[in-house]
Amino acid sequence: MYGITFNGKHSLRDLGLYAENKIINAPPKKKITDSVPFMHGVYDFSTVGSNGEQVFDTRTVTVTLRIIAYSVEEVHTVYGQALEWLMDDGEHELVFDFMPDFYFMAEVQDAPDWDKFLRYGLLSVDFICRPFKVGTSYVGDDVWDTFNFITDYTMYTNIFTVDNAALFEVYNPGRPISPVLNVNTPMKFIFQGSDTIYQLATGDNKIYEFKLKTGLNNIGFEVIAAGVIGTAKVIFRKESL
Questions:
Q1: Strand ranges inside 29-163, DSSP E
Q2: Please, are residues 222 and 164 in contact by the beta-carbon 8 Å criterion?
Q3: Are 47 and 118 found together in one domain?
Q4: Are 41 and 35 spatial neighbours (Cβ–Cβ below 8 Å)?
Q5: Same domain, 34 and 129
Q6: 119 and 153 housed in the same domain
Q7: What does DSSP assign to residue 25?
Q8: Phi-psi label, residue 175: left if phi above 0, alpha if psi -120 to 50, beta otherwise
Q9: Is there a single domain that holds both residue 11 and residue 116?
């Protein structure tokens, strides 16, 4: 028997509810199309505003939780506790025991059905989730327990020493993503194949128009102050469908 972790609680250990079934639906694409008279098909504008990247809508994850109760009073009590747990506020990380290397950002918008819970001990919960599941560890942490030998890359560090100027290789095992660039001194930042030079301030920097592509990325840092040896961190979690 396994459970789920959501809103700071584990369904089985904290509430006595085990996950009997789950349906993890794929997110649908967001399509923006238009047509003109006498043309074949349609014009697809879905990736115009996203620099060619396909965007996706929310996904639904349905989990059926079961309780083995010994009295009607216990059923009422657990149902109330489950409502507090599931409906308390907005989004939380949803983690399945069988998939500990990823979480979904999820929210329960509609209360689970009481009749099914009373009659069969079943609680069917619909989680509305952001389209991508997110790695529980930062890329480069090399957490052995969650390392995926099919998709992950071995990067022994995501921290780089910059002596004047230097180029580095960063591997992204997931979908294109904007990382946090953390530097200990002001630097210039360049990305492979781009003529744009970004100015980084000391601390965390997020450049939304810059995304690490899937696989190998070549990036460069240049310290602005003369004679200073800098440190740069590329911080991100892998995201996947």
A1: 33-34, 43-44, 59-66, 92-96, 99-108, 122-129, 133-135, 159-163
A2: yes
A3: yes
A4: yes
A5: yes
A6: no
A7: P
A8: beta
A9: yes
Q: Among candidates 208, 201, 195, 207, which has minimal Cα distance to 225?
A: 201
Q: Is-contact 2 12, C-beta < 8 A?
A: yes
- pTM, two decimals, is 0.83
Within a domain: 241: no
Domain boundary pick from 135, 159, 178: 135
Distance CA 222, CA 232 (A): 10
Q: 94-115, pLDDT tens digit by residue? A: 999 999 999 999 999 998 877 7
Looking at this protein, which amino acid is placed at residue 137? S
- Backbone phi, then psi, for 13, in 5-degree steps? -70, -35
Q: Which two tokens stand for residue 42?
A: 């349609």
Residue 83 lies in a domain: yes
Report the 10 Å Cβ neighbour count for 84.
Answer: 12
Residue with tokens 């509609």: 110
Domain match, 131 and 150 both: no
Q: What is the pLDDT of residues 50-69, one digit of tens each?
A: 778 888 999 999 999 998 77
Per DSSP, the three-state class of 118 is helix
Q: Which sign, positive or negative, has the C-alpha torsion 67, 72, 73, 76?
A: positive
Does the pLDDT at position 149 exceed 60? no
Q: Return the closest-CA partner of residue 159 out of 138, 136, 135.
A: 138
Q: Round to whole Å and give the CA distance between 238 and 68.
A: 37
Short-list 225, 215, 235, CA closest to 137:
235
Q: Which two tokens stand for residue 14?
A: 């904290």
